[in-house]
Q: What sequence folds into this?
């Protein structure tokens, strides 16, 4: 037996991997950039030790992003988190180019000074999925990219380096003309929008934290908080730049610390996930323990730290899902707060884990499923048994109810019909008797009335017995009875019936009512133009197929008619299948054992 | 004797009306449900209301409830309830409303016009009528768990049943082809064996016997 495999429900397959060669190239690039930035810083005029510290911090921060990015990338190759962090780390070094005395290098540094913020926005807003799933997040990252590229390049052609960028710096290579007013206006708009963006993002992150499910909080807390602090600090420091006043240097420190702390936060989350994998070991021990039945759902919920985790077991014959008690389960729609992961065994789905959407760690899910695979299979069988049992009970109850309803209907029919008529007949005959001597003509007319009444009473009783078990079925068997149904159907019916004469009566009756009900349903609901009825006997079973070319869309749980058929068929140990896709007609297939 | 007939089935209502008319009764009203019945009874103050037990709207025991209402509001009107089923408990319930001028018969009984006519008259004159099938059922269900009843002779049981049906001593004597004083002797034995209080009127006697038979 092969082990279980896990298929993410969104069918996503990974083509992008992480390899050691790629990692080496990234690392080398980071080293070059770091050395360049240190050299550029050392070129500066400041105090030697202060410059050294500043350069050291710059390198440390950049490398921590690149390093933790590479670690994340190797641990979760399908996620964008790793690449995003590596990109932030590399882009982080670009503003150092502005320290250069060369006009071209300086200009490049200024133009690219905010690019790392785009990567940072992506990282924070896509955490912990590594993908921007919400439209709002995409818009925010788009705005960040717009402000840091298009708007940045919009003011540079008008900016005189000394007046706008920094006094005593090299010339702005992108400058086309000098228009201090224009450049300043665009720059201030950029900053204003930057403040707005930062505050918006801060609020979003705080709200995200408030609304987060326990699993998401667990997975994202340090990163969300570091991100929120960073954006708040960023908003205040941009305000400082705008007004030219230093309202608070605390903001600058907060921003810097939060930015620097973020890789640590990401690594912390990664370690936590690693610990979660350790929970699998616990799970295996629990499941392997003798002498007690472990609640698998609870055990998995504990292992995956998702108290809301539910297991839905798959019934292959009916293509539906039930919970551990056999009750039907509706799987969540994609895009909600819950996500599903299908657990397969030997290529067949066994169960579906319905879990928090924040739980995107496929490797973890994979391991958990592997550990629980056999137990899941067992639980599935148990759930299937329970579902069958409760179906059986419900079906039995419905059969009894149907029987009672039928008795009531019969009693009412007899009471209001035949019985009344017979009492009337008795009265009429009594009347005729009294008239017989004195008024023979009167008596004769009363007797005629009585005879007419007797005829209609017989008629009524005939209809009634026909409904109980059709006479033609009793007298001439299923083939003739089906032919009778065909003739009575308002829709044209093509009937092909090859039937042996010795079918058991209960099978004949069930088959008759199945066809009768299916034809009635088709006439009532299908808007079909024709119906095909096909019956054969093979391998000791009577197979019926009733197929129309109508509108389809009939549901198995639908009308009491279909349920009644199912009960009748299943009570005989038979099987019934309804296929009724909207627009493709309805097909009822029934198998009844003739033993 | 003036009658009102209530039955929701028009066939039976009209047929019964015609039959009773033919038998010399004065049928003053035909009703399809309890409301119409009350209207007729209030308007005509008939001697007897002949009521089908099942009527709209619920088709269960409307006739019985209507009987209770008539007993309470128009005590002078006797009640004869007709039913298609033998339902001993209904009959006992009906008699317990007051056995005088009360009857319970199966609908089939209309086939014997003479007997039916006599029963209607008996109820109308303040007597009691209980369908023999009901009495039979009561005796059967009582016999299986009652020793005193077992000790009665076959003839005494016949007398008991006739009493339960509401027959007078004379009626019993006629039915069983015995002398009236023999009937009285049997009745004395029965009351002693069953330890029933001696009643001074026929309808009280019916109630005593029926209550005894119905007791569990």
A:
């Amino acid at each position: 037996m092969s082990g279980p495999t896990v298929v993410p429900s969104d069918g996503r397959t990974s083509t992008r991997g992480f390899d050691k060669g790629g990692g080496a190239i990234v690392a080398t690039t980071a080293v070059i950039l770091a050395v360049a930035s240190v050299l550029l810083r050392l070129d500066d005029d400041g105090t030697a030790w202060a410059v050294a510290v500043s350069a050291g911090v710059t390198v440390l921060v950049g490398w921590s992003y690149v390093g933790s990015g590479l670690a994340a990338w190797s641990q979760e190759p399908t996620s964008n988190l790793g690449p995003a962090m590596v990109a932030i780390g590399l882009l982080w070094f670009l503003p150092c180019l502005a320290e250069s005395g060369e006009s071209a290098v300086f200009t490049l540094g200024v133009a690219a000074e905010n690019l790392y913020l785009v990567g940072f926005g992506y990282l924070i807003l896509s955490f912990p999925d590594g993908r921007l799933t919400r439209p709002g997040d995409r818009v925010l990252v788009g705005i960040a990219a717009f402000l840091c590229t298009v708007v940045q390049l919009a003011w540079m052609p008008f900016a005189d380096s000394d007046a706008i960028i920094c006094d005593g710096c090299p010339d702005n290579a992108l400058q086309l003309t000098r228009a201090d007013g224009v450049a300043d206006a665009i720059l201030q708009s950029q900053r204003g929008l930057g403040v707005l963006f930062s505050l918006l993002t801060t609020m979003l992150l705080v709200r995200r934290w408030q609304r987060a499910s326990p699993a998401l909080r667990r997975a994202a807390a340090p990163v969300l908080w570091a991100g929120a602090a960073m954006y708040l600090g960023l908003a205040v420091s941009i305000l400082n730049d705008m007004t030219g006043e230093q309202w608070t240097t605390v903001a600058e420190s907060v921003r810097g610390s939060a930015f620097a702390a973020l890789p640590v936060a990401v690594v912390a989350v990664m370690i936590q996930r690693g610990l979660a994998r350790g929970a699998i070991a616990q799970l295996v021990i629990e499941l392997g323990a003798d002498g007690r039945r472990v609640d698998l759902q609870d055990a998995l919920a504990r292992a995956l730290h998702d108290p809301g985790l539910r297991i839905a077991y798959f019934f292959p014959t009916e293509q539906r899902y039930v919970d551990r008690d056999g009750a039907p389960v509706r799987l969540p729609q994609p895009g909600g707060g819950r996500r599903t992961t299908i657990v397969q065994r030997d290529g067949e789905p066994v169960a579906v884990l319905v879990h928090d959407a924040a739980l995107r760690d496929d490797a973890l899910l994979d391991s958990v499923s592997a550990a629980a695979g056999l137990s899941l299979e067992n639980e599935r069988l148990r759930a299937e048994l329970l579902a069958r049992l409760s179906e059986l009970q419900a079906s039995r109850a419905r059969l009894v109810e149907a029987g009672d309803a039928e008795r009531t209907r019969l009693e009412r029919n007899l009471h209001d019909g035949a019985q009344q008529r017979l009492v009337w007949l008795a009265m009429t005959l009594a009347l005729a008797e009294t008239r017989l001597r004195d008024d023979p003509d009167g008596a004769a007319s009363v007797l005629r009335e009585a005879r007419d009444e007797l005829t209609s009473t017989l008629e009524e009783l005939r209809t009634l017995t026909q409904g109980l078990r059709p006479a033609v079925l009793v007298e001439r068997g299923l083939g003739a009875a089906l032919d009778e149904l065909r003739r009575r159907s308002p829709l044209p019916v093509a009937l092909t019936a090859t039937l042996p004469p010795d079918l058991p009566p209960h099978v004949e009756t069930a088959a008759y009512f199945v066809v009768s009900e299916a034809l009635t349903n088709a006439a009532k609901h299908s808007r079909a133009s024709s119906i095909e009825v096909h019956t054969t006997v093979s391998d000791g079973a009577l197979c019926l197929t009733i197929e129309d070319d109508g509108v389809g869309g009939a549901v198995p749980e639908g009308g009491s008619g279909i349920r009644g058929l199912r009960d009748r068929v299943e009570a005989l140990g038979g099987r019934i299948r309804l296929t009724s896709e909207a627009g493709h007609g309805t097909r009822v297939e029934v198998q009844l054992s003739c033993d | 004797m003036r009658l009102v007939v209530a039955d929701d089935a028009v066939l039976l209502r009209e047929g019964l009306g015609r039959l009773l008319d033919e038998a010399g009764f004065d049928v003053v009203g035909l009703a399809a449900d309890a409301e119409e019945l009350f209207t007729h009874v209030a308007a005509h103050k008939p001697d007897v209301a002949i009521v089908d037990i099942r009527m709209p709207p619920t088709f269960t025991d409307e006739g019985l409830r209507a009987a209770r209402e008539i007993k309470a509001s128009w005590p002078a009107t006797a009640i004869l309830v007709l039913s298609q089923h033998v339902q001993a408990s209904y009959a006992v319930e009906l008699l317990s409303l007051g056995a005088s001028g009360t009857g319970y018969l199966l609908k089939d009984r209309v086939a014997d016009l003479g007997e039916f006519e006599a029963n209607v008259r008996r109820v109308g004159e303040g007597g009691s009528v209980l369908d023999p099938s009901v009495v039979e059922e009561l005796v059967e269900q009582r016999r299986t768990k009652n020793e005193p009843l077992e000790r009665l002779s076959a003839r005494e049981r016949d007398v008991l049943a006739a009493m339960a049906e509401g027959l007078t001593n004379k009626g019993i004597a006629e039915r069983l082809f015995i002398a009236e004083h023999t009937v009285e002797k049997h009745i004395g034995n029965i009351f002693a064996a069953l330890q029933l209080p001696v009643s001074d009127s026929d309808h009280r006697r019916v109630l005593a016997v029926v209550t005894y038979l119905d007791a569990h």
Summary: Chain A touches chain B through 16 residues (CB under 8 Å). The longest helix of chain A spans residues 362-435.
